[in-house]
Specification:
The structure holds three protein chains of three kinds. Chain A is mostly beta strands. Chain A is built from one helix and eight strands, in the order βββαβββββ. Chain A is 7% helix and 32% strand. Helix content of chain B is 32%, strand content 23%. In chain B, strand 2, helix 2 and strand 3 form a beta-alpha-beta unit. In chain B, helix 1 crosses helix 2 and helix 11 packs across helix 13. By secondary structure, chain C is α/β, with parallel strands linked by helices. In chain C, strands 1, 2, 8, 9, 10, 11, 17 and 18 form an eight-stranded mixed β-sheet that branches. In chain C, strands 5-6-4-13-14-15-12-16 form an eight-stranded mixed β-sheet. The longest helix of chain C is centred in the N-terminal third of the chain and has 18 residues. In chain C, 55% of the residues are buried. Classes of the chains: A mainly beta, B alpha/beta, C alpha/beta. Chains A and B meet through strand 1, helix 1 and strand 5 of A and strand 8, helix 3 and strand 9 of B. Strand 1 of chain A pairs antiparallel with strand 9 of chain B.
Amino acid sequence: MPEFTRVGIARTRYLTFEFEGTEVPAAPGETVAAALLCAGVTAFRVTGSQGARAPVCNMGVCFECVLVIDGHALVRSCMTPAREGMKITREVDA
Amino acid sequence: MKRAGEDFDVAIIGAGPAGMAAATTIADSGPTVVLLDEQPRVGGQIFRQPPAELQQGPLSIAPGYPWARALIEACESHQNISFRPRTTAWGTFREHPADGRGALRVGTYADPGGSWIGASRLVIATGAYDLPVAFPGWTLPGVMMAGAVQSLLKSQRVRAPGPVVLVGSHPLLIILADQLIAAGGEVLEVAMARGLPTPREMVRALSAIPGHVRLLTSLAGAMTRLRRAGVRISTHTVVDRAHGSDRARAVSLRGIDGAWQPTAPARVVVCNTLVVGYGFLPSVELARQAGCEVRWAPSRGGWVVAHDHQQRTTVPDVFVAGEPTGVAGAEQSHADGLIAGETIVRDLTGTALPARRTRAKAARARSFARVVEWMFPPPLTELADLVDDDTVVCRCESVNAGQIRALLDHNPHVCDVNAVKIECRAGMGPCQGRYCGTTVAAITAQRRGMPIDQVGAFTAQVPVRPVPLAAISGMDS
Amino acid sequence: MTASDRADVVVIGGGLLGAAVAWYLAKEGVDCVLLEADQVNSHASGQNAGSLHFQLEYRMISAGLESARRAAEAMPLHLDAARTWATLSDDLGEDLGVAQTGGLMLAENDEQATLLEAKCAIERSWGLEVEMLDRVDLAAIAPYLSDRVVAAARCPSEGKANTRRAAPALARAASGLGASIRTRHRVTRIERRPGGWHVRGMAGQPSRDFGVDAGAVVIAAGVWTTQIGHLVDVALPTSPAALTMTVTARTPKFIGHLVQHAGARLSLKQSADGNVLIGGGWPSRLARTAEGHPDLSRRPTLIPESLLENARAAIRAVPAVGNLPVLRTWTGTTSETPDQLPLLGPIEERPGLFVATGGSAFTLGPSYARLLAAVVQGRQPELDISSYRVGRFRGAHVA
């Protein structure tokens, strides 16, 4: 699965958060979206009929990166710094 | 009315070059400034900084903006500027709305709660966002905006998976392709909708804009490096369709003539990331909700906020600076911010700051902006032609072009995008119509044979960004 | 279309009410022209919360039992509406999103519970099916309600309909039966002619004159009713009430009833798409002309305090809605009459002119329309509508 690649600076330590039951690593300072993209996640939002969606704008406009983070709905993962122990799932399409 | 929340002399929404310029100009003269942005650091999109943990060395500034570093550092440390990161402004109100006077109140939200900010002047410097272009397959994971791929690279230091194909009409694409290669990425092709400026055009542009030499030379340097790296740079080529089932795996490109009519059958290029860069849309929702008039300016991105030469909008005490007045680059935004700042300083303190340098800078910026407008205007009406009936137009609510066209055909008197929205839900999702508004307008205009600016825009309602109900309920009355 | 044409009936107003009148008339072969200044459903019909509520509302009981009893005189209309909505989708052959899954009017303390019991007694005396539920009952059928709720009045026939669909569906059905639905037709003159009336105005963009001759004219113009009345020199007393609606992002279905409140302005429901719609009568600010008169050509503006208080009331009743993001608010204007009862019936001083507006015109609209269609054709309406006669305000000072 094609994933994003970390470049530029050495990341020396990682935290982990949970996404849909699986542990995902993130370097301090990374957003949840960036960490998930580096983990090869391509389905952030799953629509009823129209398939999976992934981040498009990375600046908080498109709302395709939204996830349920620690119980809060419709959180833009591209604007959310990853934190140790976060519990993250996809939105359930109403 | 009970005054609650925090009060400042001036509230500035948006910490890009326009907002920062206004903030420092005002704060240097004494009045207090609060500067809001949804991002964690100042800089806006063009000067978007990595978070501290991912920063190594000095601030990374795009070449050609010698004033930017000092401006960023000033905003981060000025004692009269309160920077509110990760804060959303969701609506503007007046203390005495009946007579349109009195202090301004801005509803804000910063997780977990909402609060009011009071000010006697407001500067709307909300920037712009990548123009959403709908085409078959655009909703596949892996299809991303140029600004997204660039900000992920520069401020998150993560590189999109190759092979990468870039499609669009904005010179940013050339710069970005170069940056991806420098970061070790595989770029196959950059497909530009128009021709590239000829050397003669470049020289003409250079002479019009002596202060912008660095920008154009960086463009020329990027093109040279791309060619050396074997990247195909095609012109008069647009995206036809993105292919894939669970994610993008290939893209069809097709040649077009000056009228955007196809000149050759589409050809398929394999890719894991398809970068889209056809231009930018001014972010005018906050201004419209505040009651500011907008004008139609297609060469500057579409609907833009009307203003006078002092950056005043049609709403008293509300100013606008930067891309919401028209997409024209960071120099223009910077100049706008300085002018707005100078005007507000005169309003609040009576002091007239020397304006000659600002005026000269603004004039240069306008010349450059005109060159950019002429070379790379976003083709708003032509982009509707990329859409077929199955193409999703409203991503949030999964409404496709066929449904919109059918509703227009079944309701011959519907000729306004708000009527379309009510009928089919396009624009009713969390992005609040930002990603479908232009396409809905283009389809409606086309079906009705009307100019695109006659079919309206989605009403900008409170909240101009989604805000949790609990955050609103917890605010002071 | 020629410069002047003829119809049996002209209906002024293309909201739910006007479209329904045109449909009921067209069903009986009456030749109908509907004139709508803007687009069908573009005003109050399309902007309200879509509630189908048959219990007496908070604003009717908050002023005491005497005014509640007076408001209850509309109960026969409520009962009629409950029956009418139940079959309307089938009758039209289009899905109007009608869901009558029941309404709950909440009490948070004994005082409110007592008020609800008295309200139920009044309603039952008119034949409405309504029952009181206690905490235990509510925990079983409405677990989404806050622990603060001690009792509720449940009306099984209450619910909702889709405001985006109803008026357009009625207009399409009317048109299919031969009615002529004309949008962007603004009425500016109504003149007496032998045998009826001549309705004139401006149509389209760029505008041109139009004129229609008709034996009868029905005024179904919502907040513009009073203005239209002035065209024939008649006082039709209505005043505009600007209200506020809030809608959240979609979420999986968890609220199965129309929720209202005995002690607060609150109306809350979850649409078929999953959004939660919150209202209840919170005011927004009417636009005003330079002289200070209501300017109905511009949308009212939001009053932040209305948004905040409405949000608080919603969260008090259904705590889980606090987690939902608000996607938009909007304002709309409805027409109110001095005594909260509708204006419904002939305009005695102007034979051949009829009017319907006021009250809860979304819930009761189809009923008003059916009753008025009968009156227009010279028949006795199925229900006694004398309480809603236009002339009841004669002699009283009206603004």
